[in-house]
Amino acid sequence: MNAERIINTSAASSKRRWGPRMWPYLFALPFVLTYAAFQLYPVLYSFVLSLHDWNGIGDKTYVGFKNYVQLWTNDPLFIKSLWNTLIMMAMFIPVTLILGLTLAYWTFNLTRGKRLFQTINVLPYITTPVAIGFIFSYLFDWQTGIVNLLLTKFEILEEGFYWLQDPWGSRAIIALMVIWRNLGYFMIIFMAGMTVIPQDVYEAAKVDGSTGLHTFRKITMPLLRNIIVFLVVTSVINGLQLFDEPKLLYGGWSGSAQVGGPDNTALTIIWKFVDESFGSNTRFGYASAIAYSLFLLIVLFSILSYRLTAPKEDKR
């Protein structure tokens, strides 16, 4: 009897002890199952798929790492898409950082109209990508574009320039689209960093005779170092995933699709991935290899950009 009583008491205490501990797991279970079904499983399956040759209909053929070897050694379009992406990133990341920081500093010191100026600059960021594609396609159209009309009216150009059919012109327009869209976001992030800088620092600098430009270089910029690192890393990640701007500029909104732009100079890695997945020559295994190669590139460039921009004490 004593043994049974001890066993029953132990079982009851065990239930009381484990009962409350199970509730957090039960509440988290729907999210974990949803994440495993719609996030984790597709990621793992896409890697398995990258080791096969499959068009989505017939049987899968295991080819090992052949897709990766072909991608990096025998696919000039992929190399060109990578090169195009890096060129456009080199165009818009430094300009957006510099202009965003300048606008943030100027807006932060405004005494009147600050909220109105912030709203005007943030509006492009919340504009739909489709509208942005329409706007810039009309602006830089050869015959009816406002840019060509102004340039010819002021006799800067004798005739309209084929902006959308020029290799470097197309890249510059895409970079301009990214800058125009993200400038307000960069400005808001920089302003958020400026609001947490103690005003005592600025007052002490003013007492020591520091001018506005000297204060900006020696106080504001060093204290915004973490914000700059964050924006550089996220810009590199988003830049390597560039797709909306070139696709909407050349992807057939007007009825005639042009994959990759003129001579594929606007082709990005993601556009190459989408074309391999859902284009005329569907290759899901090859597209999965592009996706995983892009993942490794994002990891590599993110680490590199952090190492180049982070303070020395944070690199250890």
Entry summary:
The chain has 316 residues and is mostly helical.
Radius of gyration: 27 Å
CATH superfamily of the largest domain: MetI-like
Helix-strand makeup class: mainly alpha
Number of H/I helices: 13
Strands of the biggest beta sheet: in what spatial order?
1-2
- Our count of domains comes out at 2
Biggest sheet: strands, sense, closure?
2 strands, antiparallel
Would you mind describing this structure in some detail?
This is Cellobiose transport system permease protein. It comes from Paenibacillus algorifonticola. Residues 82-305 form the ABC transmembrane type-1 domain. Helix 3 runs parallel beside helix 7. The chain has 2 domains: 2-50, no CATH class; 71-314, MetI-like (MetI-like fold, Orthogonal Bundle), CATH 1.10.3720. It is 72% helix and 1% strand. It starts with a helix and ends in a 7-residue tail after the last helix. The mean pLDDT is 85. It contains 13 helices and 2 strands; from the N terminus they run H-E-E-H-H-H-H-H-H-H-H-H-H-H-H. The chain has 316 residues and is mainly α. It has a two-stranded antiparallel ribbon.
Question: Which key terms come to mind for this protein?
Answer:
316 residues; mainly alpha; MetI-like fold; 2 domains; two-stranded antiparallel sheet; 13 helices; 1% strand; globular; transport; ABC_transporter_permease; MetI-like; cell membrane; transmembrane
